[in-house]
Amino acid sequence: MINLIQDPPQDPPKDATPWDGVPAPDIDAWGQLPVQAGNFDHVDGLFYFTYAVCIVFFVIITGVLLYSCVAHRRKTWDQKPLSNVTHNTPLEVVWTVIPLIIVMIMFAWGFKGSLDMTTVPQAAKQNTYKATAKQWNWTFTYPNGTRGYNEVYIEIGKPVQFMLESTDVLHAFYVPSMRVKRDIVPGRYQSVWFEPTKLGTYHLFCAEYCGDDHSRMYAKVHVVDEATMEKEPWNIVPEADAPVAERIAYGKELAGQLCASCHKISPTQGMDNGPSWVGMFTKVDGKLVGRQREVIEGGETKTITTDDAYITESIRKPTQKIVAEEPYRGRNMSNFETLDDARIACLIDYMKSLADN
Predict the structure, then answer these.
(1) Is 333 exposed, middle or buried (CB count within 10 Å of its CB: 0-12, 13-18, 19+)?
(2) Does 302 lie in the same domain as 262?
(3) Residue 7: what pLDDT?
(4) DSSP H helical segments within 175-307, as ranges?
(5) pLDDT at residue 25 is higher than 70
(6) 325 and 287, same structural domain?
(7) With 50 as the cut, is the pLDDT of residue 10 above it?
(8) Same-domain pairing of 165 and 202
(9) Is the CB of residue 50 less than 8 Å from the CB of residue 106?
(10) Looking at the domain assignment, is residue 50 inside a domain?
(11) Are residues 258 and 223 in the same domain?
(12) What pLDDT, in 10s, does the model give residues 113-144?
């Protein structure tokens, strides 16, 4: 029998995030934007063109204002106006036409870029992923049907399309290093595509406010080579006969990705929007047993044991048995009906490692 009563891996600091240990993205000499890692380089060109236009006009307009304030200031209180001219038609035409031309250049540049981003090439259509957003995590479905959570692997130099969906509220798919962003509207499929051009790990953010933990709703985009993709690193889950420490470590990592936004998953990590995992199991006569918990099922209050079956049901069908304890009674948990048995088993092993002795 596997002994799950052991010291769990050391907890990170209370303010730790899933991004600890991942280098910050490079920035350019101007301190602007993460390094370009996709094929939409026109975004950078338009950005710097707009930046330069703003600087030039700021200098010109500010210079004219300062000169006018000094050269044409009133010398005495009864000094008469130097001119009674109310307008200058040629000058007004100039400062209307020139900005119009510049704005039209920006529009044409941006419109062409928008067409490039929304016209998905055939190569990207043949490499289509699905990104499912919900409060407050990401589920990625790969072209072969396998799934990953809060991190996704894509192949360098291979165009990729993401079909985007939300299971609850408005979200956004924003990868600054690839220069792509697309809102994810509930009840509607959106799509976004790009071609990764540099190996590395990049940030994926939700860029639309979606609730309490919106700021923590991010994922990792791993750009890897073909050999790494063939190994399917996102789909490597410890088997039932794997060393227990390995299963606990995997369960803890998965809990940090999917569950920490609501549950306290260790003595120092997690939130209290849902029941704590700490002490959910306890040791009695050398065996692990679940604690008693009051739940509401079918409108009736019942006392159940937090065993493996209850936890599995709560993950996949959280409304089946609602925790009766306050303040969790009126709160809804997202369902993870696509989470497979192997991953759930690792989560349960991690919960058991937090048992009271």
Answers:
(1) buried
(2) yes
(3) 44
(4) 226-230, 244-258
(5) no
(6) yes
(7) no
(8) yes
(9) yes
(10) yes
(11) no
(12) 888 888 899 999 999 999 999 888 898 999 98
DSSP string, 141-172: E-TTS-EEESEEEEETT--EEEEEEESSS-EE
Instruction: Output helix, strand, coil percentages for the chain, rounded to the nearest 5.
Output: 30, 25, 45
User: What phi and psi values does residue 108 have, to the nearest 5 degrees?
Assistant: -65, -40
Q: Is residue 91 in a domain?
A: yes
**Contact residues for 2 (Cβ-Cβ < 8 A; gap 6+):** 244
Average pLDDT of the segment spanning 179-187: 91
d(CA 97, CA 293): 73
Asked which of 65-79, 213-227, 263-277, 316-330 is least confident by mean pLDDT, the reply is 263-277
Domain that holds residue 279: 244-353
Dihedral sign for Cα atoms in the order 336, 19, 238, 222: positive
Residue 348 lies in a domain: yes
Which of 81-90, 177-186, 314-323, 330-339 has the highest mean predicted lDDT (pLDDT)? 177-186
Q: How many domains does the chain have?
A: 3
> What CATH code is carried by the domain that includes residue 309?
1.10.760.10
| 136 and 63 in a common domain | no
> Within this chain, do residues 114 and 91 fall inside the same structural domain, yes or no?
yes
Bridge partners (DSSP) of residue 69 are none
Indicate the burial class of 265 (C-beta count within 10 angstroms; 0-12, 13-18, 19 or more): buried
